[in-house]
Specification:
Serine Threonine Protein Phosphatase 5, Tetratricopeptide repeat; mainly alpha; Arc Repressor Mutant, subunit A
């Protein structure tokens, strides 16, 4: 670990605070904590800090002091406000009470409530000093925490804004772990949904910042590990990086861990294992509110994406309906379902309502353009399809072969003929998103799914026709449609293919 003897270290702050706590009076400890609360917080173990602060409270520390506020926060009790400085007897940290609420809401998965508390923080926040850190790193800490709240809510543009704000704060060498955290979380956003070039740049900046002894560091390492796994081009190497990350260190970032896990396993061709892992996430008692933000939506959206790649549009539609409708990933899924079930005009309307691109969502923008091009082609609007391809090439960042592989083969052939700079790709290379899009229009209707289930259950044709109250001729027509959509020619093959796709 890199250290610099010229820096004041977290261990120095903890040692000095413990010495102040050992004095006959508590005045020195109260004044010290006013100045260096965050250094002591990140340098101590929570149990040790709780013991030190509890002893100060028992010895007469006011509940309205910074010591009293942090102790209440550690216990999960309401923070008494306003907090006052021990030395000047003046109000300090006016954002403390809404911050405590924001953090508690976040830990419970109550993302909307956390966002509202974050808005209160911004309204009450003192103007940071652009040159000197006059609040012991508190402004830097607030920027990182506000960014984390926005990140979990799915507002990645706002999250990146807060993290950028953190990078611009006056230097706080003792709390450099917070700066590492801001770069690491920005790298994870970009690796999941944004620009891999920016993701690598942020990860490199995080790596340049020397580690501290804080308990926060293993969590930052886990975040950087997820970003690194997503950025790894070789599937086996990506899987090895993913498997090396201790799940217990991922913490609040677990929805992004789910994204990384699913994408890497699907890239390896392990769709069944990806499904198993998502079901595992779904069954865990993780902090989330159904249908709110990334915690309440991501597992459903990932499972829906896998269902769409297997041409199970009905189950995908059900899953997407449980996700946050404000998330761009949800809106993209809704449009893909519309295309899958034979409603390209509806899909087009849904896609056109989405913005061309938001900060931190370059990957989502590429997928939107890929689906938009396929939709125009489905509507026999070749000119519009070519216009979309040109716009895709002009998205911020370099348009790569990996980007091109998100487009269905028919669209790629048009691009290769119309756009000289279109990246060369392997015709057989097809992402899971492109596979899902390519299957558009081959969905089975509800009645066809019922017939398929009866087939799998061993019912005869006569029994199926009777159960469905249809003639044998109608049943034969339905069976021909089922076989065509599944790409098979007989009953046993239809059942096996339906099982493979998760339709039965």
């Amino acid at each position: 670990m890199e250290t610099n003897s010229g820096y004041r270290q977290l261990a120095d702050a903890v040692r000095e605070f413990e010495a102040a706590c050992a004095q006959d009076t508590i005045d020195e400890a109260l004044c010290y904590f006013d100045l260096y609360a965050l250094e002591v917080w990140f340098g101590s173990t929570p149990s040790r800090l709780r013991g030190l602060l509890g002893d100060l409270i028992r010895r007469g520390a006011p509940r309205s002091s910074v010591v009293g506020g942090v102790y209440a926060f550690l216990l999960g009790d309401p923070v008494e406000t306003p907090l006052t400085a021990a030395r000047q007897n003046q109000e300090v940290l006016p954002e403390a009470e809404p911050f405590a609420r924001m953090f508690e809401h976040r830990l419970r998965g109550q993302t909307r409530e956390a966002v509202r508390a974050g808005e209160e923080i911004v309204a009450k926040r003192l103007e940071p000093n652009a040159v000197f850190d006059r609040r012991g790193g508190w402004d830097l800490f607030l920027s990182v925490q506000l960014g984390t709240t926005a990140m979990l809510a799915g507002d990645v543009a706002q999250a990146l804004g807060h993290f950028t704000e953190a990078w611009m704060h006056p230097p706080a060498p003792v709390l450099r772990c917070l700066l590492r955290e801001a770069y690491a979380k920005a790298a994870l956003i970009e690796a999941c949904d944004g620009d891999p070039v920016i993701a690598r740049r942020c990860a490199e900046r995080a790596a340049e910042i020397s580690r501290t002894t804080s308990w926060l560091e293993p969590g930052i390492d886990a975040i950087l590990g997820l970003a690194s796994a997503l950025l790894e081009a070789e599937p086996d190497a990506a899987r090895a990086r993913l498997d090396a990350i201790p799940l217990g260190q991922v913490g609040e970032m677990w929805p992004f861990g789910a994204i990384a896990t699913n994408r890497i396993l699907v890239a390896q061709g392990e769709e069944a294992e990806a499904q198993r892992r998502l079901e595992m996430f779904d069954g865990m008692s993780l902090p989330r509110t159904a249908g709110v933000g990334y915690p309440g939506s991501m597992v459903a959206l990932l499972r829906a994406g896998n269902m769409l790649a297997r041409d199970n549009a009905h189950e995908a539609e059900r899953l997407i309906s449980t996700a946050d409708p404000e998330l761009p990933r949800t809106q993209l899924g809704e449009a893909l379902v519309s295309l899958k079930v034979g409603q390209p005009r509806r899909a087009l309307q849904q896609l056109l309502r989405m913005p061309e691109m938001e900060a931190g969502l370059r990957r989502v923008a590429v997928l939107r353009h890929a689906l938009l091009a396929a939709t125009h082609l489905r509507l026999e609007q070749r000119t519009e399809c070519e216009a979309v391809l040109v716009r895709a090439m002009r998205l911020p960042g370099r348009f790569t072969a990996e980007d091109a592989e998100q487009f269905v083969p028919d669209v790629r052939r048009i691009a290769e003929g119309a756009i000289p700079e279109w990246p060369e790709t392997d015709p057989a290379a097809l992402s899971s998103f492109a596979r899902a899009t390519a299957g558009a229009g081959r969905h089975l209707t509800e009645r066809e799914l019922e017939v398929l289930a009866l087939l799998a259950g061993g019912s005869s044709r006569e029994e199926i026709a009777a159960a469905q109250f249809i003639s044998m001729n109608t049943l034969k027509t339905q069976l021909r449609s089922v076989y065509r959509k599944l790409g098979v020619s007989q009953r046993s093959a239809a059942v096996l293919e339906a099982e493979r796709r998760g339709l039965i």
